[in-house]
Amino acid sequence: MNAEDVVQWADNLIFERTGDNLTPLEEAILTGVWQRQKYPQIAKEFNCSQSHVKKEAAKLWEKLGEELGEDLNKFNFRSKLEKKYTISQVSNFVRCVKGNINICNEFVQTIEDTKTRSPSPPESPQNQARSPIIDLTDAPELRYFYDRTSELSTLKQWILQAHTRLITVYGLSGIGKSAIALKLIEQTQTEFDYIIWLSLADTPTLSTLQTELKQFFGRSPQPPLPTVIDYFRSSRCLVILDDVQNIFKRSQLAGQYLAGYEDYGKFLKQIATSSHQSCLILLSWEKPREITALEAVNLSTQTLNLKGLGEQAAEILREKELADEEKWSDLIDLYQGHPSWLNIIAATILELFNGSVSLFLADGTADLFVGDLEPLLESHLERLSDSEKKALYWLASQNEAVDISRQPADSELSQSEFWQAIQSLGRRSLLEKVLVGTRSLFFLNPVFKAYIQCKLNLI
Ligand SMILES: Nc1ncnc2c1ncn2[C@@H]1O[C@H](COP(=O)(O)OP(=O)(O)O)[C@@H](O)[C@H]1O
Ligand SMILES: [Mg+2]
Questions:
Q1: What is the number of the ligand 1 atom nearest to the C-alpha of 315?
Q2: pTM here?
């Protein structure tokens, strides 16, 4: 959603209601506020007085607020609108899709959608935007969404151009996997006949999952088909499986199925290798073990290791109204642009330093502050196998990225156990790899490193 979209959206809204278009000043106010400009700046650019801008803006917020059913002002306009056109768009859709089919296409028209949907001639149905049957009952709510343009275009390229059948998005908890998948749905929904989000948080068996999928596909007026893959062949389906790590064993190397869940592996392989026109997306803390092998031989399998938000994470700090903007990039680097971590640390900075990032970072020599991140970090560490823990403790004691071609002299692990442990830690996003010349060097995620060092000092 950019400023131009917002102006167009508001213009349509006002026009429908009053028959008038937005005035040039109203457009300037919307554009400016969307781009986080202050009223004096908008007034200067529009060559009018601040008080005039203020007065016109107040009227505009009232008009738009009435339409949205929200109390709007310059501070909350952007977040309210983003919220409205992500969460409510989705939840309205979920609400009305239960038991009904395709009756709520108007709810899913996003701002982008309204603008970019090409008017296809009715005689060419294959070119027409689809109105999918969507069920996002299991999906979390999305509050804000800051730019993930490059990851989103990679995913869209895989799905829409390369027709990738199986995609794994893996990364640390809270890094934004669910958020990006929701955004992806918003941006690609017209390409599909069915879209469903299922969480594996309650560890459904494969047969329960397949039954749920078939029930969902059965909402269409078409005659029912015997298997999920039949629906994948006959229609364009997008299935998101969230929290996939729940069907993997704890205290074992990453991505191994729980007893009784091994048939998921076969199912994924079938999705990746058989011919159909649909896409299954897995969201997981861990990359399933067989995906690496599938990727090597199958062009229809892709994996995205989701990392932090980079500079865009500044929006989180802005949202929290932290001070000392010149220090924000240091804070973002320290916490790797990880949205959940930054949200938590921002709350700490508000609590302890009244929002001053400078004061929080003042003692540059101090250990990296982990604080309330501890439970999140611990939830990853408690899933590790013994060999991974040993490798992790060793890595935490290293000052630089390490060459793993030779195992550490004091390691209790054999060479192959050590390499497997390193590989597995990578599949959990706990290790980073750097290329130095032709050599790969590995280092531990700095926040985990700080946490483990702190734990080791306490032992
Ligand atoms: N692109 C984003 N823009 C803004 N906030 C984000 C973004 N991605 C994630 N977040 C924030 O981080 C939290 C965790 O994101 P989520 O998608 O639930 O992570 P995951 O699914 O990887 O555990 C969200 O509640 C949201 O507040
Ligand atoms: Mg999630």
A1: 4
A2: 0.75
